[in-house]
Design goal:
By secondary structure, chain A is of the alpha+beta class. Chain A has 14 helices and five strands. Chain A has a three-stranded antiparallel beta sheet. Chain A starts with a helix and ends in a 5-residue tail after the last strand. The model of chain A has no long low-confidence stretch (mean pLDDT 95). Chain B contains eight helices and eleven strands. The longest helix of chain B is centred in the last third of the chain and has 27 residues, at 236-262. With 263 residues, chain B is of the alpha/beta class. Classes of the chains: A alpha+beta (256), B alpha/beta (263). At the A-B interface, α1 and α3 of A face α2, β4, β5 and α3 of B.
């Protein structure tokens, strides 16, 4: 008699790899192997829907048929690992970057990266913003040693193409904005965050982006300011704090 | 608009992050008891429960303090892959032992009794030895958990496998039943000329399922009843009409139960 694990592995081969041989051999005599299609369809349709919810702009950019075909290939290679499907699809941007049928859409992977950051921002755990009184209570020397913990909804990305303009244009159906997109305008650096009113995507200049990445990576204020090499980023720190982009901090070790 | 319903049920998996969904859930919870209905714990996984998923469920339950908590007699995870469906178990002693071990684990973790729901299934394994209703009853008996009796699922599975739906109901232990589900389903042709009924929660409850629901109420007494409708969602008044009809049958069952007590 097949074990439970053998049965489950046979079903996985049927649903994910499309190989029905082992599963069909386990079915009761009066159960046709066609019934395996019911489960395979539910699996592929359900996971494709999860991807579509996370990547609505990609879905509109390539159309439903292309999206479903790409999703089927992606799902077979990267099936979900848990039932928490809001976390599914992190690998989709990289998959699209290397997906030959989409090779002519060089910006597609960048838009997908932005959508993944937006999805993360939507679903990230709640966290209270840092209480600024705790910072104010520090000496100026200690304030320089502060290393922040970023809000889990924050996302930072640098894209070769204007992913934000394309993303907004596609989701708003704004053809004029899309017609005005200059794919060769150079990279955009984006901050994605969750505000009370919803997720917001804003552009940062190079100095501001590098400074913000350093702070979110746990550099101390002193190190991040030094890294900014004279660019005027101090007002940005104030803005980050006021916007609740950090939730905690610790103090860097004193240098010996 | 605040619908006049006694309680609401949500899929636990939709509230595992933060942000807006959780805010909505908090708002519902202020006015209504909530039942947490999980679809992804995979109680029948041969390789054990995913501890991270169990912990996510525990966190949601801690926040919501649900009136009822439920999962399915099914599996969806093997080899670290989530198969995004409630897959049928072979009805064997091994499966029964696995499910009971996992129900124990969940009830210990949640520090409460859970309900387990009978699934809709579209195939059976040749090595199954235990009728599904006996499997359900055995899980309840061995673990002390309750049963979420999905009347539509019984109807669907009975059609798909040639079972007697009334005999299925009669095989469940009345004292263990803690909740009832009702839903619509669809009918699809099979290559062999037959049909298979699919539990897709996308239409009204059919007359035969309402009749089976009456039978369930007569057998188990009045119980919290939920209409599941989560694909092709209709205008709210259609859904409320279904809930109202179930409510009327419940009131009648209560009167009959009181009448029987008085007699």
């Amino acid at each position: 008699m097949p074990t439970l694990l053998e049965t489950q592995r046979a079903m996985r081969a049927s649903l994910v790899d499309g190989d029905d041989r082992k599963a069909a051999a386990l079915l009761a005599d009066d159960v046709g192997a066609a019934r395996l299609n019911i489960y395979r369809n539910t699996f592929v349709t359900g996971v494709t829907k999860a991807l579509r919810l996370t990547y609505p702009a990609i879905h509109r950019l390539v159309g439903a048929d292309f999206f479903e075909a790409a999703a089927a290939r992606f799902i077979a290679r990267h099936p979900p690992r848990t039932a928490y499907l809001d976390q599914y699809g992190a690998d989709f941007p990289d998959f699209l970057r290397n997906f030959q049928p989409a090779a002519s859409l060089a910006y597609l992977a960048d838009v997908a990266r932005l959508e993944w950051a937006v999805s993360r921002a939507i679903h990230a755990a709640d966290a209270e913003p840092l209480d600024l009184a705790r910072l104010a209570a520090l000496s100026p020397q200690d304030q320089a040693r502060v290393c922040f913990v970023p809000h889990p909804a924050n996302g930072l990305l640098c894209a070769d193409h204007p992913a934000d303009t394309i993303w907004r244009g596609v989701l708003n159906g704004d053809d004029a904005a899309l017609a005005g997109v200059d794919l060769g305008a150079g990279p955009v650096r984006l901050l994605v965050e969750r505000r009370a009113t919803g997720v917001e995507v804003s552009r940062l200049d190079e100095a501001a982006w590098c400074f913000t990445v350093a702070l979110c990576d746990g550099w101390s204020v002193e190190e991040a300011l030094a890294g900014a090499a004279g660019a005027s980023v101090a007002p940005l720190l104030t803005e980050h704090l006021a916007a609740g982009r950090f939730i905690d901090f610790h103090l860097a070790q004193r240098k010996p | 608009m605040r619908p006049d319903v006694a309680w609401m049920e949500v899929h636990t998996e939709n509230y595992m992050g933060g942000g807006t969904p959780l805010r909505y859930l908090d708002a519902i919870r202020r006015d209504h008891p909530i039942s947490l209905h999980g679809v992804g714990l995979s109680l029948g996984s041969a390789q054990g429960l995913d501890p991270a998923h169990l912990e996510r469920i525990r966190v949601v339950a801690e926040r919501v303090e649900p009136g009822l908590m439920s999962e399915h007699i099914a599996w969806s995870v093997v080899g670290g892959t989530y198969l995004a469906d409630l897959l049928p178990l072979p009805m064997t002693e091994e499966s029964l032992a696995v499910v009971c071990r996992h129900v124990d684990q969940v009830q210990t973790c949640m520090k409460r009794r859970i309900l387990v729901e009978n699934p809709s299934t579209y195939l059976r394994f040749r090595h199954s030895t235990i009728p599904e209703w006996e499997f359900m009853a055995a899980v309840a008996l061995r673990t002390g958990c309750g049963i979420l009796c999905d009347v539509n699922n019984i109807y669907v599975s009975a059609h798909n496998h040639g079972w007697d739906a009334s005999a299925y109901l009669a095989g469940l232990p009345p004292a263990a039943i803690g909740e009832i589900h009702l839903a619509g389903h669809s009918v699809r042709p099979l290559p062999d000329g037959g049909t298979v009924r699919i539990d897709d929660h996308g239409s009204k409850v059919i007359g035969e399922v309402w009749a089976l629901y009456r039978e369930a109420l007569a057998r188990f007494g009045p119980l919290p009843t939920l209409i599941e409708w989560d694909t092709d969602v209709p205008p709210l008044e259609v859904l409320l009409g279904e809930a109202e009809f179930a409510g009327a049958l419940l009131v009648r069952a209560e009167q009959e139960a009181r009448g029987a007590d008085a007699a």
